[in-house]
Amino acid sequence: MLLRLAYLTGTNAFAALRLLPMSDRDKDTEILALRHQITVLERQLGPDRVKFAPEDRAFPAAPLVPLSRQVLRRLRLLVQPDTVQRWHRDLMKQRHARTCRPKRPGRPPTARSIRILILRLVRENPSWGYRRVHGELATPGITVAASTVWEVLQAESIDPAPNRAATTRADARSASSSSTTTRTGPTRR
Fold this sequence. Notes:
Blueprint: H1 2-19, H2 24-45, H3 54-64, H4 69-74, H5 81-100, H6 112-124, H7 130-138, H8 146-155, H9 169-179
Helix pairs in contact: 1-3, 3-5, 7-8
């Protein structure tokens, strides 16, 4: 498509250079002949529409867009003036989409320092699951999703939710209640 667009631009540039030595009368005669050819083609097509390739749309869209709708309606075009404006909008969208497209699609990778911190927390505390690690990271203000912690652990072949049969909250509460001693001394108010 890009090669064809370059070809069309080159041929139309040479056609414009050919018009320089021509008189206005010759140009008007050529315009009338071209308009007549368009009329004949429209008559031969009947209800069928002309199909333009994307590179064929680019050339008329760029120079015709600055013209007002009234001027565009007076021109003898194979398409409606609104179509020419739509082609121009589509060209601008494609151009904008190309310049704004991210270099690497998808979610950006997790920072290496956060991955190392997650793995360190899990190795130092093997009974913690991914949600606990997520909570511990949130305490100092490190914002990372629980699903990200899960993915990091899965990538390292570590079970994100280990079996915590030995240390459940109920076990911790019963252990802490049995080991508490009664305070003797003055009470605070």
